[in-house]
Structures are given as structure tokens and as C-alpha cells.
Design goal:
Layout: H1 4-25, H2 43-46, E1 51-55, E2 61-63, E3 70-78, E4 81-89, E5 95-102, E6 109-112, E7 119-126, E8 129-136, E9 139-148, E10 154-161, E11 167-175
Antiparallel strand pairs: 1-3, 1-11, 2-11, 3-4, 4-5, 5-6, 6-7, 7-8, 8-9, 9-10, 10-11
């Protein structure tokens, strides 16, 4: 179990890492329009999900429920793909810290910190959309669809889970602004 001080400390560290990462990627003329035409786009240009996201409980739906008290997600570039870190304060006040590093090459990635999912396999649909297969103990237990809005400020995750219990969640997240 995490203490609330530790979870908020971890959250502060994640947000600070996001801000430092964004600052490191910001050059005086670092926009796509300033890049010479012969350079490939950066991972940040290709992966709209990168950065921090905060759950918007007023726009989300949890069936059968209950909704968590809060959730912060962080997606960062890693050499093996994208690292996801998910900090959740559950409805009962307990806390979870889930992590994985996944790529879109149809490779199963290990998930830590979850009692319902121990592996994820991801596939990219388009620049805004990715789909995941969620497994536990080698058995498929659910699917998730992640969509970033065209303006890059909203992330919607639709989760359909069959085990350990049937779940249909639509989780809406707001991008956490980074310091410039």
C-alpha cells in the first residue's frame, strides 16, 4: 500500500519529469514547420499521447463502477517503445501504481502493479488511435481503445473487460499542461 504522501510525491515527480521532458524538447525553433524537410518527424510529433493526463471524472463513465477518486497517466518515450505510468486512487482510497513499456510491433509487454492485467499487446490504428489487448495469466481479459482528440488536449480510453468481472468504462482525460 502507498501512503497518500508517497502517492502525491510520486505524482509530483511524474509531473516534474513531464515538464523537464517537454522543456528539453523545446528549442527556439523546434516546431514541425521549422524542421528542414529532409528530417524525419520526432517521436513527440508522431506520438500524440506523450505527456501527462488527468482523469476528468465529470466526463467519464464507469460500468458497473465505482469510479476511482482520481487517476494520473504519464506516457513517455523509451528506447523500447512508450512507457506508461498510471497512478490511481481507487474509490475505497487504496492506491495503485501500474507501469508498462509497450511498442506497436505486436509484442506482448509486461504490466506491473495491476491485479487484473499482467500483459498488454498494442497496435496503432492511426496517429490518434491505438488499440490494446489486455491479458492475465496468458488469457485475454479485455480490450482498450485509446483516442487522442484532434487538438491533442483530450484522451479517451474505452475499456471492455470480461474478467475477472465484466466492465465497460469510458475514461476521459485532460492533458496536463507542461511548463515552458
Amino acid at each position: 500500500m502507498f501512503t497518500s504522501t508517497r502517492v502525491w510525491g510520486i505524482t509530483a515527480i511524474v509531473i516534474a519529469m513531464l515538464q523537464l521532458g517537454a522543456a528539453a524538447q523545446q528549442a527556439p525553433s523546434a516546431g514541425p514547420e521549422a524542421r528542414p524537410p529532409d528530417n524525419n518527424p520526432t517521436v513527440q510529433d508522431q506520438e500524440l499521447v506523450l505527456g501527462g493526463w488527468e482523469l476528468d471524472l465529470t466526463r467519464s463513465m464507469f460500468s458497473p463502477g465505482p469510479a476511482p477518486r482520481s487517476e494520473i497517466r504519464s506516457y513517455q518515450e523509451e528506447h523500447e517503445g512508450i512507457k506508461a505510468e498510471i497512478l490511481t486512487v481507487n474509490a475505497d482510497g487504496s492506491k495503485t501504481h501500474m507501469q508498462y513499456v509497450a511498442s506497436f510491433n505486436d509484442v506482448v509487454a509486461v504490466v506491473t502493479g495491476s491485479q487484473q492485467t499482467d500483459a498488454v499487446r498494442m497496435r496503432k490504428i492511426d496517429p490518434y488511435t491505438a488499440e490494446s489487448q489486455l491479458s492475465f495469466g496468458g488469457q485475454l481479459v479485455g480490450r482498450a481503445r485509446r483516442v487522442v482528440s484532434k487538438d491533442g488536449q483530450t484522451l479517451t480510453i474505452t475499456l471492455e473487460r470480461t474478467a475477472p468481472a465484466a466492465v465497460h468504462n469510458v475514461e476521459v482525460f485532460r492533458r496536463i499542461p507542461t511548463a515552458r
